[in-house]
Amino acid sequence: MLLTTLVNFITEPFQYAFMRHAFSAGSLAAVLASMVGFFVVIRQLGFAAHALGHVGFAGACGAMLFGWAPIAGQLVITLLTGIFMGTLGRRLEERDTIIGITLAFALGSGVLFLHFLSAYSGQASSILFGNLLGVSSESIRWMLVLTIVGLLSLAVLARPLWFSSLTPMLAEAKGLSLNKVAILFFCVMAIAITIASQIVGVLLVFTLIVGPPAIALQWSRNFWPGISLCVVLSLVIVWVAVFLSYYTDWPISFCISALIFIFYVLSVIKNGRVFRR
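Below the sequence we write its predicted structure tokens.
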């Protein structure tokens, strides 16, 4: 009886197409966001990732203003901003003011676009807070294509990215172009943030990008164990959040952020330290 109840509990959400879409889209976002986030944490680019997420808000609202798909506008603006940030290279840590001003301008532009889009307040809310249960088949196809592009790009970039993240001076001495690596990585980050924002919205995209890697790096700082743990942890968090949202009717973005917070606190307590580079 208990086993039957458990099986019904697990399988019931999959009877509905919108839940199957939610699990599919959530899985795509979790895989790419966690792998990109691993390097974001290693390279201490948390604020830059946070800024890219908010910049995407202006792109999505601007796209709606012209009758385009929000995800298209969001991807374009995050890619352009990512390229700009990538040109700063290792100086990025010294340019928080530039990033902050760009972030503020993007948010202000988004507010202006919303002023002309009063009839699309529902879509604006989805952009800000995510709407995983409302993901369409077409959106999943877009996310699948972008995820494949992001993963292939990251696979090619992983070795020089890891090398330049740990020993930038040695990597540069070996002839590796740090600026080129940074620009390419920011482009991949822009793709990951665009996909992740479809799940948790631009306001909480930072959580899904940085949260699982920050937890995983409490347990392992080696490449393969660390990045594998990132992916597994991110998938588990997203799946559990979708189940919680289905049975409690709470927002998925809250469930994801709450689970990440709980896991992170427990991890810090268990290890007795906060991750430091």
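Residues 153 and 220 are 24 Å apart (CA to CA).
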